[in-house]
Specification:
The protein has one domain. The chain is 22% helix and 34% strand. It is built from eight helices and 14 strands. It has helices at 10-14, 16-19, 26-29, 35-40, 50-57, 95-98, 201-208, 218-228; strands spanning 2-7, 20-22, 59-63, 68-73, 76-80, 88-91, 107-119, 123-128, 141-142, 145-149, 156-163, 173-176, 181-186, 193-198. The strands form three sheets. Strands 1, 6, 7, 9, 11 and 14 form a six-stranded mixed sheet that branches. Strands 2-3-13-8-10 form a five-stranded antiparallel sheet. The longest helix is centred in the C-terminal third of the chain and has 11 residues, at 218-228.
């Protein structure tokens, strides 16, 4: 299956192979052992475990396309990147209000990539925390979720991450360096081939940008209509 990434940001399109990469961790690729050795030593090597094989084979690893700075303060959370205008958009949820008081102790970091992913046919993408990439981790957790994707109803790639106050230093500062693993994008139907298309900002806004029409349940209402067709 093909998945087209349409964006007005040339920098994102030209570097997609740097921030959307194969998901195999280096330690996994280095697990080289012969069948003879595995049998003789009765080793349960991860390279032969279907849970690992299917996850890494059918996933893409989303990495930070650029440095991201985050500050936590009394009014909330602020973000900054090196480029202006930025290639990423940021937001944050009040977990205490949106998910219940049990979640109030966690901070929210929402990262949107400035572009739309358009599949050639309906498919599903799952978000998982990149826990198997031990290097260059930041103290944030990608929240597990499901991303339904449709050819005529497409949305930006948005990653919701969570952490507590300890994620930030004594100054309330957190740096996410470029290339940092953010999330696994797992495709149950098989990892797609990615194509890119760069368009003008005007064309992107008119043809490819997701536009909300309802305050509540907007995507779910649009999805319901798509599934009726």
């Amino acid at each position: 299956m093909k998945l087209k990434f349409v964006t007005p940001r040339h920098a994102l399109a030209n570097t997609i192979d740097k921030w959307l990469t194969p998901a195999f961790p280096s330690w996994y690729k280095d697990l080289k052992i012969s069948d003879y050795e595995a049998i003789k030593q009765d080793l349960k090597v991860a390279r032969y475990c279907p849970a690992f094989v299917h996850l890494f084979k059918n996933s893409l690893l989303l990495r930070a396309p650029q440095d991201i700075c985050s500050w936590i303060h009394d009014e909330g959370i602020s973000f900054e990147v090196p480029s202006h205008p930025p290639s990423l958009n940021f937001g944050a949820f009040d977990f205490g209000k949106s998910m219940g008081k049990e979640w109030a102790k966690y901070n929210s970091v929402k990262i949107d990539v400035d572009g739309s992913f358009i599949p050639e046919e309906g498919t599903t993408c799952l978000f998982f925390d990149p826990m198997y990439h031990l290097d260059d981790r930041v103290p944030l957790t990608a929240m597990t979720g499901v991303w339904p994707m449709y050819p005529d109803l497409y949305t930006p790639l948005a990653i919701n991450m969570m952490g507590n106050r300890d994620c930030y230093d004594e100054n309330g500062f957190l740096l996410i360096p470029r290339g940092t693993p953010l999330a696994y994008l797992y495709f149950p139907q098989g990892k797609p081939t990615i194509e890119t298309e760069t368009v003008s900002f005007e064309e992107y806004e008119q043809k490819h940008m997701y536009v909300r029409t309802d305050f509540v349940g907007d995507f779910l209402k649009k999805e319901k209509e798509v599934l009726k067709e």
